[in-house]
Specification:
The structure is a homodimer. Chain A contains 9 helices and 11 strands. By secondary structure, chain A is an alpha/beta fold. Chain A binds a DNA duplex through residues 4, 17-19, 27-31, 33-35, 37, 50-55.
Chain lengths: 296, 296
DNA sequence: TAAAAATACTCCATAGGTATTTTAT
DNA sequence: ATAAAATACCTATGGAGTATTTTTA
């Protein structure tokens, strides 16, 4: 059985006339007769009761007409859908975010995708750690990752810079520098510092300590927390101060003030994708770039 | 696009290897390469990322794999179903019954069909009138009809006799002959008679009056009702007596006694079907014959 | 007898085969 | 170096066309 048999059968079922159906199919009448004969032979069932004066479907014919219509419609839909998939407007894309991109980039992306790529199902996962994100992209369990690029370059994946943003200080509301225009990082030398985890689990830890060294001090006490939200809450609780990328200010917490640094230090944000990610991932990548364009 | 493209694509999607997939399809490898090229050209989308070492589906390819599998499974199911339809084990059949077959043949048929033709949806309609039944079968709004054959022969439809059954008298419980072994019809000459409608709407009316004439009398008062159930209830209410085919005894009503006639008069029951009714109708017709075989 | 489906036959388009080349690892 | 996909080319099947016959209402 081939689709041409089904298409011909449907036409014949509708026209109930070999000549007209053949014309509609751009076929000669005998070709249609033969196709029907083949089809009936293959399914082993008479589909059309026919004489020179009357063409009528059998019960089996009526069933096949319905099913054939369904199948042909399915295939038409499929063809359309394939084009959508190829254009990246239909599909499923998973994006992972490091903690400091979770409260700013993630929601912006979600809103943009909802508007511009309604056919793409997004799977967004926030508060992840950079090394795991890279591995996930490598093994295709994630399509895209928004990370803070670390020291060592990544050459088996595509990495595109998204933005460079300044650090801001996170201070408890009662802190003397809270509410100021800017704070000199050196003024915080004696405070306890709350940071992301050390080791190779987060790029932030090293960046923050490097900034302190640049300001001429090494923090006296360091408290490590793994979630950015927890970090901010710790500051609110008076456990210390912190340095975070400016976009973390999207995370508003009572009892906490964000204050720019007098001499700004910066961190990068980058998008990582697999070299042969699908078109939907490419579309979403474009939206990630759009979501990070205006540095807030 | 033809089914062979889909079949080949599915095999390739599963094997992820042109050589093996081609072998499974009993094709040479270049034929498969060509089919894929045609398919991709037609849908305008790359379906497989391939190098000499790696064959991997694109997003679009994965979508098509799913859809193609669905379509092919649908068609397989359809082929099976067509055979069932052709054998008369799958389908829909409507059967109409005259009033006096409604309470005996109809329920027997329903039970038999449930057992032996579970795939056939039966549409059973009782208490109809013979002329309407015949027209309904002619115009195919009914597949089968169980009727009391009238005087004039029907030659454009298939009529097969089902059974011949004796009339029985329907008497009120208090009637002197109620409970007897048999009653002589002439003994009821003075009673009011309850019958089915006169005119050409029911064959019963004429049959009953003919039986009375054969017994040597003409009923003094005749009351016409259109439903058999109503007729019996009228007798129970003391409105008169009636003559009905023996199978109506299936209709048990308090206050009514059925009594055989001393000199039996008979009526026929017949099955009417369209000459080119489908196989399901033929199967059901066989069950109707089975349901009427043992004269009760 | 006239309209329409079936049959007879012919032809050529094309699906698929064989041989070979290209490519990626 | 080698396995595997792509390309080139050829062959033959069979799908569709034309002409004709058969059927039935």
């Amino acid at each position: 059985m081939e689709l041409r048999h089904l298409r011909s059968f449907v036409a014949l079922a509708e026209e109930k006339h070999f000549g007209r159906a053949a014309a509609r199919l751009h076929l000669a009448q005998p070709a249609l007769s033969q196709q029907l004969r083949q089809l009936e032979r293959e399914v082993g069932v008479r589909l059309v009761d026919r004489s020179t004066r009357r063409v009528e479907l059998t019960d089996a014919g009526r069933l096949l007409q319905q099913r054939a219509l369904d199948v042909l419609a399915d295939l038409d839909r499929t063809t359309d859908d394939l084009a959508e998939v190829a254009a990246g407007r239909l599909g499923r894309v998973s994006v992972g975010f490091v903690g400091t991109a979770t409260y700013d980039v993630l929601p912006r992306l979600a809103r943009l995708a909802r508007e511009r790529l309604p056919g793409v199902r997004l799977d967004l996962r926030g508060e992840l750690l950079a090394p795991g994100l890279l591995d996930a992209v490598r093994e295709r369990s994630l399509d895209l990752a928004v990370v803070r690029p670390g020291a060592e370059p990544v050459d088996d994946l595509e990495v595109t810079p998204l933005r460079t943003e300044p650090f801001v200080a996170v201070l408890p509301a009662g802190h003397p520098s809270a509410g100021r225009e800017a704070v000199d990082l050196a003024a915080l030398a004696e405070e306890s510092l709350v940071t992301h985890p050390s080791g190779h689990r987060s790029a932030m830890h090293e960046r923050v300590l490097a900034a302190c060294r640049a300001a001429g001090f090494s923090p006296r006490e360091v408290l490590e927390v793994s979630e950015t939200a927890t970090l901010v809450v710790f500051v609110a609780a008076g456990m210390g101060v912190a340095l975070v990328p400016a976009s973390v200010q999207a995370l508003r917490v009572d009892g906490v003030a964000y204050v720019p640094l007098a001499r700004p230090e910066t961190v990068e944000l980058a998008l990582v994708s697999h070299p042969d990610a699908g078109p939907a991932a490419a579309q979403v990548a474009a939206l990630v770039r759009a979501a990070t364009e205006p540095v807030p």
